[in-house]
Amino acid sequence: MFGRNLLGQGERMVEIRIHGRGGQGNVIAAYLLASAAFYDGKFSQAFPSFGAERRGAPITAFVRIDERPILRRSQVISPQALLLQDDGLLRIPGTLSGLSQDGAVLVNSSCPPEELRRRLEEDGRPLSPLIGLMTLPATRLSLEVLGRPIPNTPLLAAFLALTEMIPLESLLRALSVRFSGDLLKKNQALVEKGAAQVASGRWRKAVHA
Asked: Which of 67, 104, 144, 174 is deepest in the core (most CB within 10 A)?
């Protein structure tokens, strides 16, 4: 379990960086997370940073959440949490840059967290033992429900379930504003599946301490 508070009464702003590739819904993920925070009565901010505009190219998106108005407008340099839309992004220089030494990383991967830690050590980039690392087979879940490899919704659901920083109901509300019909129903199912894959509140002590 990581040690830093993410968001609690009177705590400082939460900064989250989402790494993905073109076609994985990375930018939408940032907007959905920020919208969920807004529906929960918090202040929030989301914006992307594009590299090469092609499918599969790395894309980074930034989210800030606070109990107070957010005045900062720069990119997120020192996030408390990272969401990675596939484990191959760990090989890209800068993905883990600036992460708090007791932060959190949630990775879309079928590999156990221990395997990813071992790979980083072999690459000469060991992850601090204070950093919480979790994996989720979000692509598999998306293929099962959507029939497409778009892992953003189950990743967000798992992150919110782990931290309990924002109710899943607020994420469902954000989804209902963006989607409708069968696509909405499938994304709602993905929220349930993603949240069920992790231990709810496992990171809650760090958030609300």
From this structure: 104
CATH number at residue 111: 3.40.920.10
What pLDDT, in 10s, does the model give residues 159-206?
999 999 999 999 999 999 999 999 999 999 999 999 999 999 888 755
Residue in this structure with the two tokens 């830690």, named with its chain if needed: 117
Q: Could you tell me what percentage of the chain is helix, strand and coil, using 3-state DSSP and rounding each to the nearest 5?
A: 40, 20, 45
Q: Which residues contact 176 (CB under 8 A, 6 or more apart)?
A: 184
Residue 123 phi/psi, 5° resolution?
-85, 0
The tally of domains found in the chain comes to: 1
Q: Does 209 reside within a domain?
A: no
Helix (H, G, I), strand (E, B) or coil at 188: helix
Alpha-carbon gap, residue 73 to 88, rounded angstroms: 29
